[in-house]
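SEQUENCE-TO-STRUCTURE ENTRY
===========================
Question of interest: how does this chain fold, as expressed in backbone structure tokens?
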Amino acid sequence: MTSRDDLRPALAAARPVRWEVTPGLVSYPDALARMESEVAAIHGGAPELVWLVEHPPLYTAGTSAHPRDLVEPDRFPVFEAGRGGQYTYHGPGQRVAYVMLDLKERGSDVRAFVTALEEWIIDTLALLGVSGERREDRVGVWVRRPDIEQGREDKIAALGIRVRHGISFHGLSINVDPDLGHFAGIVPCGIAEHGVTSLRDLGLGWTMAEVDEALARTFTKIFTR
């Protein structure tokens, strides 16, 4: 497995990265259009971008989504995302980070980039007092739940990316304080045998602004120099 120390020199770049937080709820079609525009601009030499948003309640289908995993198709709007992965939920109280970086300047190793995104989530959660872990057989970042039942693990963060012209887009989501009941309309990422959790569900009252600050601090350790 690629180590954290191995990732930093391979994926760091001196090129400036814009950091943008949009208040309120951003519609998913608007987010897709914005990412398409930004990818084209970055391919043309514009600065890279990390864009932090929240969405209204909705489900997105990745390129590997299976219809049987959409349990309640009429509950919320469903959008074809074009990213890798299966079904996921986005909604208020969940921080979504759209990561548009030029991988041609960062080694062009997509697998290492995904590992770096996982490390970014894990490092961020550590700052917030949560021990997040990756699993080789399932995507995302997971939290052990001995407080509920022995051996249970819940998903606290999801990720899925797409690459065009060597530029990444889509990204990751961290459950800060969403309505966890909204996940019941899908089988999240096709994994039925585990649950979902959030910072609030774990008894932590971090605000979205505090989560954003932690994301910014840990991002620089992996992706900039």
About this structure: The radius of gyration is 17 Å. The mean pLDDT is 90. Residues 110-127 form the longest helix (18 residues). The chain is about 25% helix and 30% strand.
